[in-house]
Amino acid sequence: MRRLLFAFLFIFVLQSGLLAQDKYKISEDDYDNTSIEMADTFRADGKIYVVVGVLTIVLVGMLSYAFIIDRRLRQLESEVNEL
After folding, report:
1. Which residue, 16, 28, 45, 70, has fewest beta-carbon neighbours within 10 Å?
2. Are 48 and 39 in contact (CB under 8 A)?
3. What does the pLDDT average to over 65-81?
């Protein structure tokens, strides 16, 4: 029953066009574009530092979590080997 429901929903999403993107013509100006407006705007407003700060916090959090899990796993492995 789950497979049937999943198949129905998958086909519905494909048929409804939710996964489709609008097509637009690529011009020569698109290939010559060397600046990224969003990054320039963030840099001009000083918001790029907020973005970098949040990314740094998330990365440090993930690495510290992985380190803590690794340390706990080593302790459990040593307890199992002692038994």
Report:
1. 28
2. yes
3. 96
Nearest residue to 19 (alpha-carbon basis) of 29, 9, 27: 9
pLDDT at 32: 72
Whether residue 72 contacts residue 81, with contact meaning beta carbons closer than 8 Å, is answered with no
12-55 per-position pLDDT tens digit:
766 666 555 667 777 777 777 666 677 777 777 888 888 899 99
**What are the angstrom distances between the C-alpha of 12 and each of 2, 19, 38?**
15, 11, 35
Whether 48 and 42 have beta carbons less than 8 Å apart is answered as yes
Q: What CA–CA distance (Å, rounded) separates 11 from 22?
A: 20
Position 58 pLDDT exceeds 70: yes
Is 1 strand, coil or helix? coil
